[in-house]
């Protein structure tokens, strides 16, 4: 039955042949390469048979040569179906419109649910989300990914300790954890202050407790500074020792500063191109011309489209092309030294307590090799070295 | 002349183990029970009705009788008949 394979798609018709010896006409058809199937004899002078739509012109030619009456009785197959569908234009239009509506609605944000936070914070989060453009009715492919949202919210809402954003179809679920501000107990348990690191005591301010060291004393890490046990030695009263013990401490740091540097700076000129990513191919929609930048920095974001909950292989892509400029800088040894010192100071400040002071700085070693300056620096710092440690009462 | 040709063909098909229907242009009729008859190598349709099918052969005719006949497929040298087959007869032109 090979000839009837796929005839539904190409279309076929049922014809009725009338005349003397309809078999003869069938013979002629077959000789001319027309495939005929489902031949039925109705009566002596009539036959019914199916032929392909593409064979109809040949058939008509044959009809004109021979003395037979041919009538097309039924039309089958896709071409005829499509034709009849086209006649009902409103039906087709409705279907297409419906598909478009489903597609558009699948790509919209329909709901934002915030859980786990107090109403005030919830309101704040909502306001912030509005600023980012995330609200009911926004296009999903124009807004950020949940990860970016998370970071932005954490930065903008200080009350939040953590926030999780999950995308479920057309709704965003936000689950937050608020920071609980714990007020420290006024009166702690008995404790003493010990040295955190070695240094020479330069200043002491003891609120409570018995100082165990004096000014200009050298202390090692772990030495007792202020004792929480006051009064007579046999029967001491235990208190919550408090205070600041400022000591001079020393730091050594090593920095390497290159003499020649190159870096790219974005000038602020930028162009955004929009397009659609179809499989692996990018079809531009807006912005066809490559900008005339000498150097540029490209960033591409892709957001998929959705149909119901399924991700389509089509993605909305926006490409940001920013103009960049290359800066070359060469430094003299002296400049390199200053930069190195500054860099080392910055690094040091991150390590030491906030209210510490860098007193002096000295270059111990300076070496130039392979276009780099290697520095070993020495710092003197005044910082609070006290570290509280509770006194365990041995009964 | 024709006899001689046939004899050569016969000999060839025997010696070379070729199917006889190809060499001698004879019809090959395959029936599936009573419901299908598949005829290859015929030389044209002579008459067809729902009770009878007559085909031209190289020599003589082929007559198939039965009821409820429908030609499922018709190609230049092949025919697939469907229906209830009662008898298949070869009619010699000379006889």
TrEMBL record, chain A:
The chain crosses the membrane at residues 91-112. Keywords: Membrane, Transmembrane, Transmembrane helix. InterPro entries: YqfD. It holds the Pfam family YqfD. This is Sporulation protein YqfD. It comes from Pontibacillus salipaludis. The lineage of its organism: Bacteria, Bacillati, Bacillota, Bacilli, Bacillales.
UniProtKB/TrEMBL annotation, chain B:
InterPro entries: Spore_YabP/YqfC, Spore_YqfC, YabP_sf. Pfam families: YabP. This is Sporulation protein YqfC.
